[in-house]
Amino acid sequence: MIVNKKLQLVRAACMLLLIVSISITASAQKVPTKTIYFLAGPKDHAGPEGSGRHETRRDLLVMQRCIDSISNATGVKIVTKFSYMRNALDIEDLKGVDAIIVECSAEGSSKERAHPLFPPSGDNTRTYDKATLAYLAQLDSLHKAGMGIMVLHWGITTTNQKATQYYLSWFGSSSLSGYTRNPLGYWEVKPIEAAKNHPILRGVGPFNYKDEIFSRMVVNPGDPYRTDLLTGTISKSNQGASEPLGIATAYDKNGARGVLWGGMDYHSALLNENYRRFVLNAILWTAGIEVPKGGVKTNAKGLQLSASKPDEFDRLKPEGFVLK
């Protein structure tokens, strides 16, 4: 009788272990995977790589390393990809991706390919050829199905009318020649009070830093899908003083997310904790990943970041301006 009871207890224990094991396995299988694809356009101005400005490749590699090393994102497995100078009208490498993060020059800034998503316009700035239009229609379908798009720095500028139409659809805003500005100097940046509860602003405080920021976009007033995130003030710049400018927006239309951030000229800006957290939060949000309370924290090491190198724009630093 005692032996039978012991045997029953052993069987019960084994059954419990089996149930727990199955439960753990099932739970692990339910963890979603999110893929983030970093796309860097060519470094086509502001000196050679390592000069500290317009470091498209180095900027995105730092952000990829930070995303790969997030310490406080739970309930999700994050996979990243990277491409430099993507120039093919190939939709296949974008399929299955949850967000694309683009840093580049304007699509119409060169006769050579400058933008990872758009070809150069050439002499026709109204539209594209049939092959390009078919590719862009597929890209747009991926976005509408949930693939987020985030564009940084000069890449927010479009000259081709068809590209502009896509930007208005993806971001609810677009640049306009003669209206959109890109002052370079020392900026005072603050989260917009009305947007303080937006996930991208979790753990993000005011910061002062040196940058060229493409700003003052054309928007539809009162657009319910757009959230203005940051405002920037610059008292001295290569374009003179400026009134406070809207410098970052988030767009969420039926689950299709887009972010425009006109900064990211100086590579050293990533040394600023609030700046870096803002960008990393935005990447997660664009990919449909819950931004952790207090914002992204990362264990990334060896990023090889260095302070801004002295240049001709240091003369624009206002007296008493403190980098923070």
UniProtKB/TrEMBL annotation:
<keyword id="KW-0732">Signal</keyword>
<feature type="signal peptide">
    <location>
        <begin position="1"/>
        <end position="28"/>
    </location>
</feature>
<dbReference type="InterPro" id="IPR029062">
    <property type="entry name" value="Class_I_gatase-like"/>
</dbReference>
<protein>
    <recommendedName>
        <fullName>ThuA-like domain-containing protein</fullName>
    </recommendedName>
</protein>
